[in-house]
Design goal:
Length: 106
Amino acid sequence: MIKWIVPIVLLVVFEGLADIVAKYFAITNKTYIAVGALLLYVVANIFWLFALKNGAELATGAVIFSISSEVLAIFIGLLIYHEQISLFQGIGLILGVISLVFLVIK
């Protein structure tokens, strides 16, 4: 197994948690919640540093992180906040997942 996959997964998970807390801040406007979101973003980026240290290529790792976190954010929006996506956004989501498959295959 590639050593940098676990830190990338943890990066995406903590980014998703930070997004949930940030959305909660947007709803409540409480400063301590914003601080919590910022701390989660910092923890997420610590895992990015570990991914880079363990051999993740900058370009590939950054794209994998970006697409994965966006897919997770869409699912969080749909499942937790009952947001809607358009047909074109759904197509973009599917294309993003397909691109992840192509990026991971060597």
